């Protein structure tokens, strides 16, 4: 039987082999910052976080080396203003306009709405930092620009809360009101710089810490920590009664009021100090118990969850240190205290560690990546925790030389952790999601 060889077809159906699709463009592009609110807000916040850390690290190391730096604003007040209001509001803007619409049952928000206020805030801080060293009026003008941008963002979020028809708007409503307190603190700081009223600047900084940043974080912690814990660990429940939220905010405002008064009324009466201790000691016990109730021990198995719980644990420690410090002040008629240890436990510990944990979670989830802390994120978190511990120990150290050495090491670790985070995640915000989805 004859065989017929098989030859490739040359008919009209055959064509040249198809070219594979081009690989996706993963280069960093500024246009991607407008793809989602968290991208723009977090990128601007990461930039300010890195700038703030490098600036203060340079200031402290220059001082230790005997290098004279010109100052138009008292360094502690300038440091407190920048660290409390420089990057925190920008992170909040990215988070609130990403998670907020979901809480409120509203459509997704466009990042372009935030562009003008965010640019205004970045420009304002550039002028303010320059003014810290050159002239108070330049610093005041810069902070006024920041206040204008943040006021606009706060009112935009308040409008979202009012537009929602959800029955449960408690958390976003309280966050919106706290954001307006932050705007007020910025306007007070701008006025204090313009008219050279240092007690007003110190009060504005205390209002920003206790009445704004800590209240926003407490509301978010109350809503998210038990929810994340119950979702990841079946043995936990999402226990978060509303009375607990009101208690958290009430405790923060009970700290805010004496802190606002101290720049004008020093020293505070001994009886008032003992009243503070009577509030702070049980508050510390409540907060440390709450950290355990929400699953601190169980969370240690899951890195990203442990980062969040580790931040909240510092809030209880901050209140314990506050109680001890105010008891010392009452016993010694304001001669002895724990210095800045309680404040740094709150700001670097609770606010700083919680910020890194939440921003890492949002950046991963909304970047199309697994909701997990990889080795780099985990390492940066523990470097930051080391910075907090060293700064608290520096405030407690008996000798000036030892305290200075610990402070310098703490600020170096803080700079490594925050700049490392900004470089790593700032690169994500300008690139498309790795899963190819929009946003």
Mean pLDDT: 93
Low-confidence runs: none
The SSE order reads: HHHHHHHHHHHHHH
Count of the domains: 1
Number of strands: 0
Describe this structure in words.
The mean pLDDT is 93. The chain has helices at 37-64, 75-85, 88-104, 112-134, 136-163, 170-195, 198-232, 242-261, 270-293, 296-299, 303-331, 341-365, 375-396, 400-429. It is an all-alpha fold. The protein has a single domain (34-429), classed as Cytochrome C Oxidase, Chain A (Up-down Bundle), CATH 1.20.210.
Topology readout:
Layout lengths: L36 H28 L10 H11 L2 H17 L7 H23 L1 H28 L6 H26 L2 H35 L9 H20 L8 H24 L2 H4 L3 H29 L9 H25 L9 H22 L3 H30 L10
Helix pairs in contact: 1-3, 1-4, 1-14, 2-7, 3-5, 4-5, 5-6, 6-7, 7-8, 7-11, 7-12, 9-11, 11-12, 12-13, 13-14
Comma- or semicolon-separated keywords:
439 residues; Cytochrome C Oxidase, Chain A; globular; mainly alpha
Summarize the structure.
By secondary structure, the protein is mainly alpha-helical. Helices cover 73% and strands 0% of the residues.
């Amino acid at each position: 039987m004859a065989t017929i060889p098989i030859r490739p077809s040359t008919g009209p159906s055959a064509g040249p082999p198809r070219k594979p699709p081009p690989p996706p463009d993963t280069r960093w592009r500024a246009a991607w910052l407008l793809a989602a609110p968290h991208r723009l807000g977090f990128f601007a916040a990461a930039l300010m976080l890195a700038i703030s850390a490098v600036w203060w690290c340079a200031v402290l190391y220059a001082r230790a080396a005997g290098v004279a730096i010109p100052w138009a604003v008292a360094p502690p007040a300038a440091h407190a203003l920048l660290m409390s209001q420089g990057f925190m509001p920008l992170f909040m803007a990215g988070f609130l306009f990403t998670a907020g619409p979901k809480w409120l049952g509203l459509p997704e928000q466009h990042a372009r709405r935030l562009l003008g206020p965010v640019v205004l805030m970045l420009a304002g801080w550039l002028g303010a930092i320059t003014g810290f060293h050159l002239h108070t009026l330049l610093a005041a003008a810069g902070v006024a620009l920041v206040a204008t941008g943040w006021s606009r963002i706060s009112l935009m979020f308040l409008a979202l809360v009012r537009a929602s028809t959800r029955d449960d708007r408690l958390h976003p409503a309280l966050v919106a009101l706290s954001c307006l307190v932050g705007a007020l603190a910025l306007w007070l700081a701008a006025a204090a710089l313009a008219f050279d009223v240092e007690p007003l600047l110190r009060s504005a900084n205390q209002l920003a810490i206790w009445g704004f940043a800590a209240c926003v974080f407490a509301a978010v912690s109350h809503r998210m920590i038990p929810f994340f814990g119950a979702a990841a660990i079946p043995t936990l429940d999402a226990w978060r009664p509303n009375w607990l939220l009101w208690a958290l905010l009430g405790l923060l405002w009970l700290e805010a009021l004496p802190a606002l008064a101290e720049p004008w009324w020093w020293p505070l009466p001994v009886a008032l100090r003992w009243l503070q201790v009577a509030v702070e000691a049980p508050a510390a016990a409540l907060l440390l118990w709450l950290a355990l109730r929400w699953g601190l021990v169980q969370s240690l198995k899951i890195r990203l969850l442990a980062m969040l719980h580790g931040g909240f644990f510092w809030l209880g420690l901050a209140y314990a240190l506050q109680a001890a410090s105010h008891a010392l002040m009452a016993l010694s008629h304001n001669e002895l205290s724990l210095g800045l240890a309680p404040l740094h436990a709150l700001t670097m510990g609770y606010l700083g560690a919680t910020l890194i944990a939440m921003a890492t979670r949002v950046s991963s989830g909304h970047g199309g990546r697994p909701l997990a802390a990889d080795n780099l994120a985990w390492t940066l978190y523990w470097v930051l925790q080391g910075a907090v511990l060293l700064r608290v120990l520096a405030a407690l150290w008996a000798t000036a030389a030892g305290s200075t050495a610990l402070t310098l090491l703490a600020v170096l670790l803080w700079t490594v952790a925050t700049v490392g985070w900004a470089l790593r995640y700032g690169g994500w915000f300008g690139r498309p999601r790795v899963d190819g989805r929009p946003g």
